[in-house]
């Protein structure tokens, strides 16, 4: 949703597709308009909240709740072969969690429309500042990498979801209505993860562009001091202003990163809880025929179906947590560049400016969390894997005892 300002005109068809994909699934309650600028590289995009999108989200909530409830009732009264009472109960409990999670997440986007527009406008202004003095070749390289990275994170979703939807409607035609409601809810959840991942890609490349620009300023200053030591003080004044501007720009980057973390905390809390429940049950349906019902004929289609659902959740979380880790790592590089350059300079004014910047960087720790309870970096995957394994063992032991 925040990427229209960052891609060239030839790529806007793809960008619009992604934007309206998020809009259709209720995770983009903003609109945008473009304003011409004197910059040779891009137009400036202004984001505002969209009343029509909010109304659409309300209609979407009613539709999802009604249709999911109907699918829930149909599945409750439908006969399911080889399903025990425990599995029927857990399936219906999972359905309730899915319906509530999606409904609350879409409602959150309705209530937080101003925050979303504010984040989008901040990111647009930061990008304009970063490219204002960026060489055309470097600008083109970064925008191409952003687009390519977004395509790479979207492709697994498209491939896996296409396989899951087609195979389910072919192998389980009697559960068409129920499957549709399950897919509808899960696609909204994965759209949330896709959107968060897209925003993280932009932030990651913002930090990269910042580090490239900062390195260029410091290396250029170092060369000037070596070439003309006597005039270093006078020549450094412009560079000190540049460093002051970069410090303010980094403060804006840090602020928008914290805004993003805060904005997605609520939806991600529900999303992770839903994924933990669904992934654990998917693992159970894969493990049970092998461990408990080994004497029966394996239902390969059923095992593949649940394996693919598990793969969707694992892929989505792996992409998100990897991007969180990479973005945080790029912010750490800024600190490393600054500390390294303090040693190399002799100009006391530059050293003072860099020292102030370094002190700020020690306090400005870029991290993406869920209300500060836990981080969304790669340690989350380890924690969730351990939790799912524990719950799976408990459920299997309970089933064996019965």
TrEMBL record:
Residue intervals passing through the bilayer: 13-33, 54-76, 96-113, 146-167, 187-207, 268-287, 307-325, 380-398
InterPro entries in alphabetical order: 7TM_chemorcpt
Membrane topology recorded in Swiss-Prot or TrEMBL: Multi-pass membrane protein
Source organism superkingdom: Eukaryota
Entry keyword set: Cell membrane, Membrane, Receptor, Transducer, Transmembrane, Transmembrane helix
Annotated function: Gustatory receptor which mediates acceptance or avoidance behavior, depending on its substrates.
Name this protein carries in UniProt: Gustatory receptor
UniProt source species: Trichomalopsis sarcophagae
């Amino acid at each position: 949703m925040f990427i229209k300002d960052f891609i060239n005109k030839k790529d806007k068809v793809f960008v619009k597709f992604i934007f309206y994909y998020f809009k259709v699934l209720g995770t983009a309650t903003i609109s945008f308009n473009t304003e011409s600028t004197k910059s040779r590289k891009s137009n400036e995009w202004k984001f505002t909240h969209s009343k029509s999108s909010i109304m659409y989200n309300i209609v979407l909530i009613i539709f999802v709740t009604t249709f999911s409830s109907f699918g829930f009732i149909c599945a409750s009264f439908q006969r399911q072969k080889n399903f025990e009472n425990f599995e029927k109960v857990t399936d219906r409990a999972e359905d309730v969690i899915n319906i509530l999670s999606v409904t609350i997440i879409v409602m959150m986007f309705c209530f937080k429309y101003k925050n979303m527009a504010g984040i989008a406008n901040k990111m647009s202004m930061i990008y304009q500042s970063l490219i204002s003095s960026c060489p055309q070749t470097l600008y083109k390289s970064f925008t191409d990498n952003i687009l390519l990275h977004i395509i790479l994170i979207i492709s697994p979703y498209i491939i896996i979801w296409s396989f899951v939807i087609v195979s389910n409607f072919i192998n389980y035609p009697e559960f068409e209505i129920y499957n549709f409601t399950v897919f509808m809810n899960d696609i909204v959840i994965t759209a949330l993860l896709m959107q968060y991942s897209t925003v993280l890609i932009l932030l990651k490349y913002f930090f990269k562009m910042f580090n490239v620009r900062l390195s260029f300023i410091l290396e250029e200053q170092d060369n000037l001091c070596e070439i003309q030591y006597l005039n270093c003080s006078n020549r450094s004044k412009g560079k000190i202003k540049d460093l002051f501007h970069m410090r303010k720009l980094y403060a804006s980057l840090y602020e928008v990163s914290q805004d993003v973390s805060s904005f997605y905390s609520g939806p991600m809390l529900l999303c992770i809880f839903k994924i933990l429940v669904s992934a654990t049950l998917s693992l159970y349906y894969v493990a049970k025929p092998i461990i408990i019902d080994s004497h029966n004929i394996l239902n390969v289609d059923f095992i593949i179906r649940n394996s693919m659902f598990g793969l969707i959740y694992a892929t989505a979380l792996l992409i998100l947590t990897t991007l969180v880790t990479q973005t945080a790592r790029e912010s750490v590089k800024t600190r490393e560049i600054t500390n390294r350059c303090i040693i190399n300079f002799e100009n006391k004014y530059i050293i003072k400016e860099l020292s102030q910047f370094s002190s700020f960087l020690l306090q400005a720790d870029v991290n993406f969390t869920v209300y500060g309870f836990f981080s969304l970096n790669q340690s989350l995957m380890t924690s969730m894997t351990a939790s799912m394994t524990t719950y799976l063992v408990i459920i299997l032991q309970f089933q064996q005892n019965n």
